[in-house]
Amino acid sequence: MLAAAWRLSQRAVTSSLLGIGRPQIRSPFLTMAHLSPAAAASLKRLRVYSSAAADGAGSGKRVGTHNGSFHCDEALGCFLIRLTSQFAGADVVRTRDSQILDTLDAVLDVGGVYDPSRHRYDHHQKGFNEVFGHGFNTKLSSAGLGYRILPWTMLIDNSHFGKEIIAKELGVNEDHEDVHRLYLAIYKSFIEWKLHLFELEEELKIDPLTKYVLYQDVRSQSWRVQAVSVAPDRFESRKALPWRGMRDDELSAETGIPNCVFVHMSGFIGGNKTYEGALEMARAALKC
Question: Which InterPro entries match (predicted)?
Fold first, then answer.
């Protein structure tokens, strides 16, 4: 069972980051030729990604998500839905055009609708309050919605998308006791980095505690240095960055570190154009 969980997590990470089955971009004008003129006008912003299913044949289904920058939730959601029998080998259509989205077999993370009966899985709309259940109260993203529930027929209410995938990995039926056990265990492992950091510090008895975390901003390719909060549910930082409100040349002159971008007025986050610069900012802040 543990081996199956490991394989599942590795496949999800690899496919979400590298793409689903080496997808090829097909001509949107051929794929969407049946659309109205108004919908066709937005096709320049549309991308369709296609790849074969495990048996070498596509399902003919089309799964939609938003265009522009992609995020972890819809990338993982598209990967998960294509592991199921119904959507194996489905094309992934990236657009925000509502007329195009209405023609698709499933839509994740866009569209403003959560309706499992129509395979619509958005979580951004006002009034959305879906949670996983089983003692977990965090609101779900598009990936979480797909993992939690995807009714395949009206005869089987509340069928579980995640359970179908897990059962395939284990080589057992969906009603096997190990499937439900692993279903809950995998969801429990989906935790935010902040919570993971606090758990690691507690388990490993880390002292002194971590003050700053570095990560890259994908949009600008610059680097961020973020102060760790005193608790997962608190905004107060363990050690806020000095130089609050400073930017660019003024900040670089004050710190003596080149390529500085900004420090937030609250001191909870700052930026530098390079990893080395962000690291130096963190080191300098520790000495203040």
Answer: MYG1_exonuclease
- How confident is the prediction for the chain on average, in pLDDT? 71
DSSP 229: B
- For the chain, what is the domain count? 2
What are the Cα distances from residue 214, in Å, to 5, 81, 141, 232?
A: 29, 32, 24, 17
Owning domain of residue 12: 2-188
For the CA atoms of 109, 170, 158, 20, the dihedral, rounded to the nearest 10 degrees, stands at 20
Residues 19 and 133 in one domain: yes
pLDDT tens digit sequence for 208-229: 999 999 988 867 789 999 999 9
Helix (H) or strand (E) holding 225: strand 223-227
Q: The tokens of 96 are what?
A: 């925000």
Same domain, 74 and 214: no
Assigned domain for 201 exists = no
Please tell me the distance from the alpha carbon of residue 92 to that of residue 34, in angstroms, as a whole number: 18
> 69: how many CB neighbours lie within 10 A of its CB?
7
